[in-house]
Write a structure and sequence with these properties.
alpha+beta; Alpha-Beta Plaits; five-stranded mixed β-sheet; 43% helix; globular
Length: 241
């Protein structure tokens, strides 16, 4: 089976997630969470990666990031290797920590950014870990909702642009968000790009002629395949007509 298609673009937002091998815990305690965030911060600096939302969820994580260069794959691979090596040494274990390569979804339009900010931060509620999001330590919610705390590398500007700077509108929006009425989850399950048909078509034009540099996918594409041709396969599952 070919690896998941990657679209590495500069100046682009992505939803990134990965989970533990066999759905096992990748964050066993507070020190694990702190270790992951420290490495995320270093990767953010090294790869000029903007971090706009994060949540650590025991056996998986979610990030909302923005690339400055076309280097998302390198950045998240670096994060995974660095954290896995440290985690395995700390817990005296060996083998794969993550179930496979991370998943990423290119976010092409502002409405999806707003919804992702809500979706990502509601994860602890959805999993029944807390009754109040303010009680959950391992996400960026408290930093955005109350304007204090959070790592130095965390960037609040996207949330401020979407919800205002006082935090209350963000808290209210998170509280009102109805996942049952939002098709975002199904789009994340089956899609590659979140955006309208026009935006997807524009992206295909930008990618036209670019080669997929990863060997498994290149074999799947054939000798003359391009990323833009593979991208066409993902338009219909996203519900984009």
């Amino acid at each position: 089976m070919a690896r998941p298609l990657r679209i590495d673009q500069e100046d682009t937002f992505y939803h990134v997630l990965n989970r533990g091998n066999e759905k096992r815990a990748i964050f066993r305690d507070a020190l694990d969470c702190e270790g992951f965030l420290a490495r995320l911060g270093r990767c953010s600096e090294r790869f000029s990666l903007g971090i706009y939302a994060y949540v650590l969820m025991g056996n998986h994580y979610h990030l909302l990031v923005r690339t400055r260069e076309a280097n998302l794959s390198a950045a998240i691979q670096c994060l995974g290797v660095s954290y896995s090596t440290w985690h395995n040494a700390r817990h005296q274990r060996s083998g794969h920590l993550f179930q496979g390569r991370f998943k990423s979804f290119l976010i092409a339009e502002d409405p999806y950014l707003r919804r992702l900010l809500l979706y990502i931060h509601r994860n602890p509620l959805r999993a029944g870990l807390v009754r109040r999001l303010a009680d959950y330590r391992w996400s960026s919610y408290r930093s955005l909702a109350y304007g204090r705390g959070g790592p130095e590398w965390f960037d609040r500007r996207l949330a401020y642009r979407q919800f205002g700077m006082n935090g209350k509108s963000f808290r209210d929006a998170v509280g009102r968000y109805d996942e049952q009425k939002d098709d975002l989850l199904s789009r994340l399950c089956y899609g590659l790009v979140l955006g309208s048909a026009d935006v997807v078509e524009e992206l295909r034009d930008r990618l036209k002629g670019q080669r997929d540099r990863e060997k498994p996918q290149l074999q799947a594409l054939g000798a003359h395949g391009s990323i833009s041709e593979r991208l066409a396969e993902y338009v219909k599952p996203l519900g984009i007509e």
